[in-house]
Every structure is written in structure tokens, then in C-alpha cells.
Amino acid sequence: MSLRRSPATLPLMTTDAITTIADEARAGLQAAGDEAALEAWRTATLGRSGALTSVLRSLGTLAPEERRAVGQAANVLRDELEAAFEVRRETLRAAALHASVAAGAIDVTLPGRPQPRGGLHPVTITLREILAAFTRMGFDSVEGPEVELDEYNFERLRIPEDHPARDMWDTFWLNPATAGERASTLLRTHTSPMQIRYMETHTPPIRIAVPGRCYRYEATDATHEWMLTQVELLVIDEGIGMADLKGTLQEFARQLFGPDTRVLLRNSYFPFVEPGVELAVSCFACPGTDPACSVCRGSGWLEIMGAGMVHPEIIEAAGYDSTRYTGFAAGMGAERIAMLKYGITDIRHFYQNDLRFLGQF
Ligand code: FA5
Q1: Of 7, 18, 37, 88, most Cβ neighbours within 10 A?
Q2: pLDDT band at 194, cuts 50/70/90?
Q3: What does the DSSP assignment read for 200-266?
Q4: How deeply is 295 buried, as exposed, middle or buried, from its count of CB atoms within 10 A (0-12, 13-18, 19+)?
């Protein structure tokens, strides 16, 4: 439909012609469905060369009596169409606004989308439980550096260079020995260096638990990782004896694994304690009868910590009187304890970042 007509193409400039223009214009206005169509309608009808404007311009060519009638009708129509245009424009704007509000609306009755929920790593959960047990027994929790000096990791723990005990801890050296110069910095192999660091700056009574990562340059298997988490214990006071060590560790095992847990203390050797022991807990995977058991290899026990009475030379080196002060120390592996708690038969699951494993805790 075109509303453009030049005066020359209008067959008769009569009020009938105005009526035709009016019908077409009204229909066109209702058909305009958006702002662009509306603008096109305005140009074609009311614009400079629009249909109605052309009629008004051609009035001069009509006879006087026709001119009055047609002119009046054309002016009335123009007023009507201009008003109708404004109404239509408002209607379209309101409809567009409604549509955009409806498109962005939130349906509060829809069920929520499930959000994946993170959780704590099983070793973190276990570490917190270990520390909570010792906090209840009056221990303070302190931390030490993961990058350590040979002096603290070995020397001052009575493990001098070339001492065979160094072979107990395969080491990640950070500055390998060069000709004429010894390696001196390493990733700590255990949390025991913090015994020395703490004694340097504190006086007895001491009762601390030291959680932290340790690193060992060793091949992994079902119970050994190259990165492990230890908790070190150090107690120094007057009158501390082996019974305190045993009672504390038994109470710890009871709190973590339940009252029926059996613990075994057996002789062991660590240069910084005398005597030295290790604590093992009854195997959860077999009753101790399966030589192929990956957890205990048929022994029935899983070793979870080394311990002992702090060597008097270490007490003296800290500046304390070893005839007055005695103490005990222990170092336990949080991964081994988590294995016992959750019945995990291979330590390597912990750090493979497999969500099928981690999602179970
Ligand atoms: C030590 O590290 C001594 N510092 C413990 C100690 C502290 C003894 C204070 C006396 C006094 P050991 O190397 O045995 O000891 O390690 C202690 C515990 O760490 C082990 O019982 C075990 O639970 C854990 N552990 C050791 N090596 C690994 C490993 N490669 N992967 C996982 N856990 C380990």
C-alpha cells in the first residue's frame, strides 16, 4: 500500500479522495507494529511529500467551493492522524517495555539450579581433628618454615654430615652441593626442626603441636608419598617421663580412632631422642593375617608416628638445665592417620585430585 500520491495522480480532489486517504492511513497506522514501521507511516502520510500534505498543497488548483470543503476535511484528518500517531507511538513503546521486562523476569516458582559445593580435603579434615585433640590436651599450635636450613633439619638434631641417619630422610636439596661448598637449603624432610627453632625463643614449660608439609625424595607406594603432612609434638617441663609420652599418645589414638583402638609402642631410633619409639595402630584392612595386605603387609599394624624422650644434649643446647627439664617429642603423618580413619588403602589417592575420590568426604 502506498499513500504517496501527487496532485496529478489524484483522480478527483474531492472529499471522497480524502475519505480514501483517511481509510488507508488509519489501517496503515494500526498495522505499524514497531517504531520503524510507525516512522515509515508518518513519512508516507504526514511527511513533506506524504499523501495528506500533497492534498493540502494542491488546494490551490481547486474551485473555491471545493477548496473549502476539501481543505476543511484535509485539516480535520491531519489533526486526527497526528493525534492517532501519538497514541499509537505510546502504545508501541509500552508494549516494547512490557516485552523486555517479561523477557528478563525471574520466575520465583522455578526450582533452584543445584550449585556444586566444595568441601575440605580429607587430609585437612584429619589435620584439624589431630590438632583439636592436642588443643584439648593443652597444646599450642605453631608453624615453621617449609624451606629449611640443613642446620635445623639435620645438624642441630644431632644428625651431622655423613651420619648414616641422614639416609633415613631422602632429601630435596634446593642448592645442590658444588665443589668446595656444601648444600645448605632443602625442603624440610620432617617437622622436627621446629623443635629447635621453638626452643631458641621460648623457655619451659613448652607444649606445642606443629602441623606442616614435609618433602622426601623417595619412590611412592601405597603408604609413602613424596609430599606428606606431619604434626610434631614437643613437651618440655620438669618431671616429664616416658609415661607422659605413652599416656598422651594413647589418649590421642583413643580420641581419633575410638576407645577400641589398639596401639603398639615399639623401639625405634631417631638421633634426637633417647629412648626412641614408634607408635603403630591396628590395621583396618586385614586382621594381620594377609601377607599381601597393602596397608600392613601382614604385620597387623600401621606405623603412624615416631617419638621419644628429647635427647639431653638437645635440651642443653637450647640453654635449659637437663637435670631439671626433660621432655618428649613425636612426629606423626596426617595422611597415614587419614588412611586409618577412612579405610583408604593407597596414600596416592590423596593428591591425584580425582573428584570421584575427593567428593566422598
Ligand atoms: C620422622 O620424621 C621424625 N621426625 C619423627 C619424630 C619426631 C621422631 C619427634 C622422634 C621425635 P619418620 O621418618 O618415621 O620420622 O616419619 C614420621 C611419620 O611420618 C611416619 O610414622 C609416617 O606416619 C609419616 N611418614 C613418613 N614418611 C612418609 C611418607 N613418605 N609418606 C607418608 N607418610 C610418611
Answers
A1: 18
A2: very high
A3: HH--SSEEEEEEEEEE-----BTTB-SEEEEEEEEEEEET--HHHHHHHHHHHHHHHH-TT--EEEE
A4: buried
219 CA to centre of ligand 1 in angstroms: 15
Q: Which residues are identified as catalytic? A: 169, 190, 216, 230, 273, 329
Q: Quick one: pLDDT band at residue 9, thresholds 50, 70, 90? A: very low
CB 354 within 8 A of CB 230: no
| Closest approach atom of ligand 1 to CA 303 | 21
- Residue 308 Cβ inside 6 Å of ligand 1? The answer reads yes
Residue 13 banded pLDDT, cuts 50, 70, 90: low
Top mutation candidate among 123, 134, 169, 192 for ligand 1, by most atoms within 8 Å of CB: 192
Q: Is 307 in the pocket of ligand 1 (CB under 6 A)?
A: yes
Q: What is the pLDDT of residue 307?
A: 98
